[in-house]
Amino acid sequence: MNGMWRRWAQRKRLVGVAYLGGAAIALAVAFLVWAVGGGWLVGFPILAFALLIVLAGYAFIDAHRYAKQVS
Predict the structure, then answer these.
(1) Rounded Cα–Cα distance for residues 46 and 21 (Å)
(2) What is the pLDDT of residues 3-54, one digit of tens each?
(3) Is 27 helix (H, G, I), strand (E, B) or coil?
(4) Among 69, 70, 64, which Cα is nearest to 13's?
(5) Number of neighbours of residue 67 by Cβ within 10 angstroms
(6) CA distance 40 to 70
(7) What distance in Å separates the CA atoms of residue 19 and residue 26, rounded to the nearest whole number?
(8) How far apart are CA 68 and CA 70, in angstroms?
(9) pTM for the whole thing?
(10) Among 58, 68, 66, which residue's Cα sits nearest to residue 8?
């Protein structure tokens, strides 16, 4: 049973890192859109950035919860 919780925690950590990578890309896109004068279009990548940061937080919280089940 401990192996199952360990695997779930690892998966959630990996998902959290993937969300953080997506957030970094969204932030870069927002900067590029701002740099070329995109105006209001900057809002879409910024919203994606915020959403991905929140999702990463929840993934890491779940990973911590699963890791606590191991011990």
Answers:
(1) 14
(2) 888 999 999 999 999 999 999 999 999 999 999 998 899 999 999 999 999 9
(3) helix
(4) 64
(5) 16
(6) 47
(7) 10
(8) 5
(9) 0.89
(10) 66
